[in-house]
Amino acid sequence: DCHKEDLAPMLRHLGYTDVVEEVVNDIAKGISEYASVDFKEFVIFVKKYAAYEQAEFKKKFDEFDEDGNGELDIEEIIKYVSFLGYTPLRRTIREAMNLVDINGDGALQFE
DSSP letters along 3-54, please? Predict the structure, then answer.
């Protein structure tokens, strides 16, 4: 069993970076009325939190998809990286794009 107070630290340990305590508590409350969750409930909890996190990523993606085409091009990525507090170099962004742009169209799709 896992105590509900340990769920947020466990998510961080699993690699989730932006753990929102309020969301963790709401999801946990909906899964179990008790102070702890068993393994099966923990798996359900992680799946629900992963769905929440993906929805939040999609919102941010859509926010920076200025032309609404479902993709982030180099200019949109530069704005996003700047928003995160980094000073992006075009060359570095292009090198990164070459690594992750699977279909070679010069843009990133959310999926």
Answer: EGGGHHHHHHHTT-SS--HHHHHHHHHHH-SSSEE-HHHHHHHHHHHHHHHH
Give the pLDDT confidence of 40-61 residue by residue, as tens digits: 999 999 999 999 999 999 999 9
pTM here is 0.80
Q: At what angle do helices 74-83 and 39-64 cross, to 10 degrees?
A: 120
Rounded CA separation 86/99 (Å): 19
Helices (DSSP H) in 65-89: which residue ranges? Answer: 74-83
70-109 exposure pattern, b = at least 16 Cβ within 10 A, e = fewer = ebbbeebbbebbeeeeeebeeeeeeeebeeeeeeeeebbe
